[in-house]
Amino acid sequence: MSDPDVRSSRKRAFVREATRVVANQDQDIPNNVKRAVEKVLRDRLGLAGFAGADIRADRDFDGDPILLVDVNYNFVDRPISSKITFGLPTEVRKALISLGESHFPQIRHHLNEQQKIAS
């Protein structure tokens, strides 16, 4: 095989593996797990403009399985206290454990750029 053929073959193998990994990540999270996480988030963050969450399986930097939770917010007129997020990963984790889910939740918050935060 010539050099271009080797590179092309390696590239195809890489794409196949990446596609397999992404496909496996999404199928690992049942709907009841997503609903449980969304309920905790809605109960805790509803007054802060909670608009929904994107929840998917992923891997952390060490390769361990995690539940990546991207929390989205609508703008609200009053400043949001950062204290509403204290203990949130623990509360989500408890809900996950009750369902037998072993992924550790990693929560990322996406606020409106104009949103004010109270200290």
What does this 3D model show about the protein?
This protein is 43% helix and 25% strand. By secondary structure, the protein is an alpha/beta fold. Strands 1-2-4 form a three-stranded mixed beta sheet. A two-stranded parallel sheet has the order 3-5. Helix 2 packs antiparallel against helix 3 (88-98). The chain is globular, with a radius of gyration of 19 Å. The N and C termini lie far apart (63 Å). Residues 22-26 have low confidence and may be disordered.
What's the total count of β strands? 5
Order of helices and strands, N to C? HHEEEHEE
Q: Roughly how much helix do the residues carry, as a percent range?
A: 40-55%
- Chain-averaged pLDDT: 85
Residue stretches low in confidence (pLDDT < 50, at least 5 long) are 22-26
| Cα-atom radius of gyration | 19 Å
Secondary-structure-derived class: alpha/beta
Strand order of the largest sheet: 1-2-4
Distance from N terminus to C terminus (CA atoms, Å) equals 63 Å
Largest sheet entry: 3 strands, mixed
Helical stretch count? Answer: 3
Amount of beta strand: 25-35%
Shape: globular
